[in-house]
Design goal:
Elements lengths: L11 H6 L7 E4 L3 E5 L9 E5 L12 H22 L3 E5 L15 E6 L16 H12 L3
Antiparallel strand pairs: 1-2, 2-3, 3-5, 4-5
Helix pairs in contact: 2-3
The structure holds guanosine-5'-monophosphate.
Guanosine-5'-monophosphate (5GP) binds next to strand 2.
C-alpha cells in the first residue's frame, strides 16, 4: 500500500530538503524547493517539492498549504517556459506506486515538450550530465 502510509523522513527528497543530498537547485523560498530531475524525461525536467510537510502525496497535503505551493509551481513553470521556450509543458504528479510514484514526498513534475520529440520513460531514463543540468538551471533561474 503506497497510497496511504506513514511518511518516511529518509526519502530522497526529504534528504535534499535537509541538505543531506545534493540537488541542482532552480528556486527556493519558505514554501517550496525546485530542482532539476536527475533522470529527466525531457530537457529542462524540473521538480517542485513543498517544505515543512510530511505529505507523501497530494492526498496528504494540508489544504491551507496547497494553494501557496501551487503558486510556486506556476512561478517555476513560467520560468521554465520563458527560459526554454518549449512547444508545451506537462505539469503532473503521481500518487502511489500503481500511478507511477517512486519517491514518497509530494512533488510536481514540470516537463517541457517539443513538437515531434518523444517523451523519455518515467523513472527509467538515463542519468543527466550534472554540467548540463547546471546550465539549464541557470537559464531557468535567470527568468525568475
Ligand atoms: P515519481 O516517480 O515519484 O513521480 O518522481 C520521482 C522523480 O524523482 C523521478 O522523475 C526521478 O527521475 C527523480 N529522482 C529520483 N531520484 C532523484 C534524485 O536523487 N535527485 C533528483 N534530482 N531527482 C531524482
Amino acid at each position: 500500500m503506497t497510497l496511504h502510509d506513514t511518511y518516511d523522513p529518509s526519502n530522497i527528497f526529504a534528504k535534499i530538503l535537509r541538505g543531506e543530498m545534493p540537488a541542482v537547485k532552480v528556486y527556493e523560498d519558505d514554501i517550496a524547493l525546485a530542482f532539476m530531475d536527475v533522470f529527466p524525461q525531457s530537457e529542462g525536467h524540473t521538480l517542485v517539492i513543498p517544505k515543512d510537510v510530511t505529505a507523501r502525496n497530494l492526498l496528504d497535503m494540508p489544504p491551507e498549504k496547497l494553494g501557496p505551493f501551487m503558486l510556486v509551481v506556476q512561478k517555476v513553470t513560467q520560468a521554465v517556459e520563458a527560459a526554454l521556450t518549449p512547444d508545451g509543458i506537462v505539469v503532473t504528479q503521481f500518487n502511489g506506486a500503481p500511478a507511477g510514484q517512486t519517491v514518497y514526498h509530494l512533488h510536481v513534475h514540470i516537463i517541457p515538450r517539443s513538437e515531434g520529440k518523444a517523451l523519455g520513460r518515467h523513472g527509467s531514463g538515463g542519468m543527466a550530465d550534472m554540467g548540463d543540468l547546471e546550465k539549464l538551471a541557470a537559464r531557468i533561474r535567470a527568468k525568475l
